């Protein structure tokens, strides 16, 4: 086996010599960009994405749609309006091959799209993608009329035998391992002959804000969606068949990727401004305003953006993160530096994310001298004096950014494979050193 040198390279996480005071322009949201690409590809007319995120996960999404015949033109708008992508939908084609990398959004959102292609679409990805749950999507597509060939494990690799159309209709799924199963079926739902009615039957559904994001974005392109919140039955979402509009959408900054920068203000008792923080959003990262305030910071949402200030003191927290699981690594890093213990709950499903995040955080923080234990559904974190060492990242972008947060307060932290941040934030090392004024 050959080892990619980038995966073993060590990056010395900068140690903060004082309070940070910076404005950080955070690139666009992964979750919004990839939903917008899918919806634009399924529309009946061209659409625009402005300030899309360009990262591994979104480029994989764009390449996959291109492989199925969608045209995506890239350009730069006038007067600092940033990059744009113009998406020109076409009849979806097979045969095609899709590399999902380790992008949950690509591996879950695209098999339903592929049922509409006029031939087979083969899906493959990184070794970790074979282990991530996909059964909810595969089983549902079969119930809705699709032919999906897999090796019987309900996971990647697989081939969707696109038939040019899908009957659709009602389906029951257990989405307790990933909200993306629900989002995936809803996003393509308007294009199924009967639309789709998704009924979640399992235990608690994680990441509800991401399902709200799906519903909001579907409605914004003209879809009719009934939800539990709009007076429907609990755990049931219904999408009516119909054409989707091509829209002109400006992508919000990725608030989950703003997390390490806000954490830097908290950890150093400094101030970080994130321009263009939306005043209304479905992004789970918006919960950081409350969580990091409870942990000792304060924030002000202005017309310009979010101004977040640390007090120099970090408090532990007892919090249910089931709605905002992707924030867990960054919160765990801050909690390890707090003045009291923390309990992070409701995130058992993180064991099936980019890596087993509960095991990885426990091991890596403890190897720096910390005292973290795994619980059935989260972490107990008892702050202790930490020391330097290598922080392994397991090809998980949020492990890398969590390690960088620890490095601000602890001298000698070395992040293995910081390049893995390219999954959603390729500019991370530069943004980080820029924030520190290096
Ligand atoms: O739909 C989305 O864009 C996402 C949903 C969540 O997935 P899970 O529900 O699998 O945690 C989240 O963790 C992931 O980062 C992005
Ligand atoms: C869980 C995450 O990603 P994915 O979309 O691959 O599930 C994440 O970004 O934290």
TrEMBL record:
<feature type="binding site">
    <location>
        <position position="31"/>
    </location>
    <ligand>
        <name>3-phosphoshikimate</name>
    </ligand>
</feature>
<feature type="binding site">
    <location>
        <position position="180"/>
    </location>
    <ligand>
        <name>phosphoenolpyruvate</name>
    </ligand>
</feature>
<dbReference type="GO" id="GO:0008652">
    <property type="term" value="P:amino acid biosynthetic process"/>
</dbReference>
<dbReference type="InterPro" id="IPR006264">
    <property type="entry name" value="EPSP_synthase"/>
</dbReference>
<feature type="active site" description="Proton acceptor">
    <location>
        <position position="326"/>
    </location>
</feature>
<feature type="binding site">
    <location>
        <position position="180"/>
    </location>
    <ligand>
        <name>3-phosphoshikimate</name>
    </ligand>
</feature>
<comment type="similarity">
    <text>Belongs to the EPSP synthase family.</text>
</comment>
<keyword id="KW-0963">Cytoplasm</keyword>
<feature type="binding site">
    <location>
        <position position="353"/>
    </location>
    <ligand>
        <name>3-phosphoshikimate</name>
    </ligand>
</feature>
<dbReference type="GO" id="GO:0003866">
    <property type="term" value="F:3-phosphoshikimate 1-carboxyvinyltransferase activity"/>
</dbReference>
<comment type="pathway">
    <text>Metabolic intermediate biosynthesis; chorismate biosynthesis; chorismate from D-erythrose 4-phosphate and phosphoenolpyruvate: step 6/7.</text>
</comment>
<feature type="binding site">
    <location>
        <position position="423"/>
    </location>
    <ligand>
        <name>phosphoenolpyruvate</name>
    </ligand>
</feature>
<dbReference type="Pfam" id="PF00275">
    <property type="entry name" value="EPSP_synthase"/>
</dbReference>
<feature type="binding site">
    <location>
        <position position="326"/>
    </location>
    <ligand>
        <name>3-phosphoshikimate</name>
    </ligand>
</feature>
<feature type="binding site">
    <location>
        <position position="132"/>
    </location>
    <ligand>
        <name>phosphoenolpyruvate</name>
    </ligand>
</feature>
<keyword id="KW-0028">Amino-acid biosynthesis</keyword>
<dbReference type="GO" id="GO:0009073">
    <property type="term" value="P:aromatic amino acid family biosynthetic process"/>
</dbReference>
<dbReference type="InterPro" id="IPR023193">
    <property type="entry name" value="EPSP_synthase_CS"/>
</dbReference>
<comment type="function">
    <text>Catalyzes the transfer of the enolpyruvyl moiety of phosphoenolpyruvate (PEP) to the 5-hydroxyl of shikimate-3-phosphate (S3P) to produce enolpyruvyl shikimate-3-phosphate and inorganic phosphate.</text>
</comment>
<keyword id="KW-0808">Transferase</keyword>
<feature type="binding site">
    <location>
        <position position="104"/>
    </location>
    <ligand>
        <name>phosphoenolpyruvate</name>
    </ligand>
</feature>
<dbReference type="GO" id="GO:0005737">
    <property type="term" value="C:cytoplasm"/>
</dbReference>
<comment type="subunit">
    <text>Monomer.</text>
</comment>
<feature type="binding site">
    <location>
        <position position="207"/>
    </location>
    <ligand>
        <name>3-phosphoshikimate</name>
    </ligand>
</feature>
<feature type="binding site">
    <location>
        <position position="35"/>
    </location>
    <ligand>
        <name>3-phosphoshikimate</name>
    </ligand>
</feature>
<protein>
    <recommendedName>
        <fullName>3-phosphoshikimate 1-carboxyvinyltransferase</fullName>
        <ecNumber>2.5.1.19</ecNumber>
    </recommendedName>
</protein>
<feature type="binding site">
    <location>
        <position position="357"/>
    </location>
    <ligand>
        <name>phosphoenolpyruvate</name>
    </ligand>
</feature>
<feature type="binding site">
    <location>
        <position position="178"/>
    </location>
    <ligand>
        <name>3-phosphoshikimate</name>
    </ligand>
</feature>
<feature type="binding site">
    <location>
        <position position="30"/>
    </location>
    <ligand>
        <name>3-phosphoshikimate</name>
    </ligand>
</feature>
<dbReference type="InterPro" id="IPR013792">
    <property type="entry name" value="RNA3'P_cycl/enolpyr_Trfase_a/b"/>
</dbReference>
<feature type="binding site">
    <location>
        <position position="398"/>
    </location>
    <ligand>
        <name>phosphoenolpyruvate</name>
    </ligand>
</feature>
<keyword id="KW-0057">Aromatic amino acid biosynthesis</keyword>
<feature type="binding site">
    <location>
        <position position="30"/>
    </location>
    <ligand>
        <name>phosphoenolpyruvate</name>
    </ligand>
</feature>
<feature type="binding site">
    <location>
        <position position="179"/>
    </location>
    <ligand>
        <name>3-phosphoshikimate</name>
    </ligand>
</feature>
<dbReference type="InterPro" id="IPR036968">
    <property type="entry name" value="Enolpyruvate_Tfrase_sf"/>
</dbReference>
<dbReference type="InterPro" id="IPR001986">
    <property type="entry name" value="Enolpyruvate_Tfrase_dom"/>
</dbReference>
<dbReference type="GO" id="GO:0009423">
    <property type="term" value="P:chorismate biosynthetic process"/>
</dbReference>
<feature type="domain" description="Enolpyruvate transferase">
    <location>
        <begin position="17"/>
        <end position="430"/>
    </location>
</feature>
